[in-house]
Design goal:
Length: 207
């Protein structure tokens, strides 16, 4: 009887999905801190404004960049966690990626008129005489958020079948110390005990 291939196929998605998630979140973290809406220099000059730097005549969405960093951190944590915690972290990446897209859509399409008005006030211009443009960074952030969202959605669904980091990478505990020697044999002192003895001025070889 052939073995089920569902688990094997799910394991094969681990690498590509994580790479897509990291790439989407990474690009969103970079683009999310850039100018999303900008007033072209020619439009600024025609409206009677003075030439300004790109930052002075642009609008950024810092929340998008912050959420991208959260998603990026979640993908890093997902690599070193297991079980239910891992699925929760994947859900966090999903929510953060959705938040990035929501911020960009609302700020760049729904409330772009409000952003234009705020930018006109900042530059001392008549809001009706200027019109901002969407920068390539806005589209890059939006696309990156979509990639991250799809990857995180796949992670939430497939993470139970993904390979996990072995327990040998966990922090050592008292229970993981070397076993006691058999009865009748002298127990060897650990390196830490030897150094403590030296610090106290005693000779650890007296025994």
């Amino acid at each position: 009887m052939a073995e089920p291939t569902h688990g094997t196929n799910a394991r094969r998605t681990f690498g590509p999905t994580v790479l897509l998630g990291l790439a989407g979140s990474g690009f969103a973290a970079i683009a999310g801190h850039k100018e999303m809406l900008t007033l072209p220099e020619a439009t600024l000059t025609a409206a009677g404004g003075l030439a300004r730097s790109v930052q002075d005549r642009s609008v950024e969405f810092p929340l998008a960049g912050a959420l991208a960093l959260v998603a990026l951190a979640a993908w890093g944590v997902l690599l070193v966690t297991r079980g239910f915690v891992r699925r929760v972290v994947a859900g966090l990446a999903l929510v953060a990626s959705a938040g990035i897209g929501l911020v960009v859509v609302i700020g760049g399409f729904v409330q772009d008129d409000s952003a234009t008005g705020d930018l006109a006030i900042r530059l001392g211009l008549n809001a009706s005489a200027v019109d901002v443009e969407r920068t390539p960074w806005l589209w890059i952030t939006l696309l990156s958020a979509l990639v991250g969202l799809l990857a995180a959605g796949a992670a939430v669904r497939l993470v139970p079948d993904w390979p996990e980091m072995g327990s040998r990478y966990d922090a050592p505990t008292a229970a993981s110390d070397t076993p006691a020697p058999p009865a009748g044999e002298p127990s060897e002192r650990s390196n830490l005990d030897l150094w403590k003895s030296l610090d106290e001025g005693s000779d650890p070889t007296d025994d």
